[in-house]
Amino acid sequence: MAKIEVTKTELVWPGKYNEDGTLKEVPRISLPFQVIETVNESRATREAKKEREKAPTLFDIYEGNEGDTFEEGWRNKLIWGDNLLVMGSLLEKFAGKIDLIYIDPPFATGADFAFKTEVGESGEEITKEQSALEEKAYRDTWGSGISSYLEMVRIRLSLMRDLLSPKGSIYVHLDATVGHYVKALMDEVFGVDSFQREVVWRIGWISGYKSVAKNWIRNHDTILFYVKTPGDFTFNKEYVPYPPGYERRGGAESGGKGYPIEDVWNANPFEFELKGEESLDSIQIKSFSQEKTGYATQKNESVLGRILRASSNEGDVVADFFCGSGTTLAVAEKLGRRWIGCDLGRWAIHVTRKRLLGIENCKPFEVLNLGKYERQYWQGVTFGETEGQVAHRAGTLRVPRFHPQAIRRTAGGGYDAPARQEGKGHDPHRRGGRAGDHRRDRCGGGRVCCPQADRTPRPRLGVGDGSL
Ligand SMILES: C[S@@+](CC[C@H](N)C(=O)[O-])C[C@H]1O[C@@H](n2cnc3c(N)ncnc32)[C@H](O)[C@@H]1O
C-alpha cells in the first residue's frame, strides 16, 4: 500500500483510502426517478396533465421541469430509496439549491432500522421485519463497525455539501456514541470555519428503568450545526416568550422579545414553561401527544420548528435524507417551506405519507423512487461490476454532471473538488426523454452511443468499506 502523506489533522479509518493513497471517491450516480403517485393533486390538474401526456405509462418519469415556486407548479417530494443514489440523482437539478438540510442518521445499532408499532385498537405491539434494502443499508452502516459507519456518513455528507445552497445550513442530529467522530468528519467535509454550534438537546424528565442506571443519567442528544458559507448564511434569531407576569431582576417589566435561545435546549425555566406540542421534551416521553406516529426514533416537531424557523425562510427548500416518520417534512409543510424527504424504509414512507395527509391544506406532493434502477445498481455493485456496466445493464446511463473521479489531496492539505462536467454531447437519457426511452434502452449500452462509459476506465465504486 502506498504511503499516505499526513498533511493535516483528520480522522482516518480502515478503508477510507485506496491502495494508491487516494481518498475513496464519492459515488455520484444519476438514475431516473419514477413518479409512483402524486398526492393531493386537484382533479382539474390531474386531467390537464393527462391531456398533455397522452401516452399512458405505468409510472411517469420525473422530468424535473416544474417551477421553483408553488405558484409555478413546484411539488414537494417524498422519495423512497437509499439516499446515496437519491442524492446522486438529485444533483443534476438541485446542486447548490437546497437551503436547509436536517438529518437524524442511525446512530444506535439496530434500533434505527427495526421498530415496534401498535396494531389497530388492541395496543398489541409488533416488530417490523427488515426488507432487503434495509438489510443492505444496515450491513453498509454497521458491517465493519465504526469504520463502515463513518464511510457511510462521509460520502453522504459530501453529497449534501454539493446540494446545499450558498446561504444553506446543515443540522446533524447525533448522540454521544458517534457525535465526536461525526464532528471531525464534518470539519473535513465542510471546513472547520463552517462549524457554528453544537446544540445540546436535553431529552426531558426521566423515569423508569433509565433512572436506576448505576451512572449519571444519560439525558441529551447533540445537534451539529454547520453552514455552507461561513459569515453568509440564513439565520433568523429565535426567542422563547417570557411567561406572563415575568419581571426582570429588580422588578422592571420586561419589554424584550423574550429569552434569546442558547445552544442548550430544554434546560432553563423559560423552556420548562412550554406546554403540549410546544414542549421540547422528547416525543417518546409525552404519552398522549397527537404527534406520535409509533415510529421508534421519531423526533419532536418543536425541535424541528426551531431549526426551520431559524435557518430557512418561507419558500426555501428544506431536505431530510433520513426522514423516518417525516417530522422535518411535516414541520416544513406547516411553515410554508418547500421540502424533499427520503427514506429507504417502506414503512417510513407509508407513515410519512399518512402524516402529511393529516395536515390541513397539505399541498400536493409526489412520491418518487428509483424503481428497478436502484435494485439493478446494487446487484451490479454487489457482484463487482463497474459503474458503466451497471448503468448500462440498467439501461439508464446519463453523462454525469459530477464525475466520480478520485479526489486527491492537494499540496495545501485539502482535497481537489471532483471535476464538474456540464453534460455535453449526446445523452439519450437526459431530462426531457420519456419513460419509454429508458425502457427501450435506446442506446443499449452501445459504444458509439455512450462512448464515455465504455472508454473511460472507471474505478470500482467505493461503497461502504468494500464489505459488500
Ligand atoms: C433515526 S431515524 C430518523 C427519524 C426521524 N428523524 C423522525 O423524526 O422520524 C433514521 C432513518 O434513516 C433511515 N435510513 C437509514 N439508512 C438510510 C439510507 N441509506 N437511505 C435512506 N434512509 C436511511 C432509516 O430507515 C430510518 O428511518
How would you portray this structure in words?
This protein is of the alpha/beta class and 468 residues long. It has two domains: 109 residues, no CATH class; 336 residues, Rossmann fold (3-Layer(aba) Sandwich). The protein is built from 14 helices and 15 strands. The chain has an eleven-stranded mixed β-sheet, sandwiched between helices. The radius of gyration is 23 Å and the shape is globular. The two termini are 21 Å apart. S-adenosylmethionine (SAM) binds next to strand 14.
Categorize the overall geometry: globular
Order of helices and strands: EHEEHEEEHHEHEHEEEEHHEHEHEHHHH
Tell me the Rg in angstroms: 23 Å
> Which percent band covers the strand fraction?
15-25%
Average pLDDT taken over every residue: 78
Quickly count the helices: 14
How are the strands ordered across the major sheet?
2-1-15-3-14-13-4-7-9-8-12
Associated small molecules: S-adenosylmethionine
Q: Uncertain segments of ≥5 residues (pLDDT<50)?
A: 395-468
CATH homologous superfamily heading of the largest domain: Vaccinia Virus protein VP39
Number of strands: 15
Helix content: 25-40%
Main sheet: strands, sense, barrel? 11 strands, mixed
Q: What is the CA-CA span between the terminal residues? A: 21 Å
Instruction: State the domain count.
Output: 2
The CATH class label of the largest domain is: Alpha Beta
CATH fold title of the largest domain: Rossmann fold
Classification by helices and strands? alpha/beta
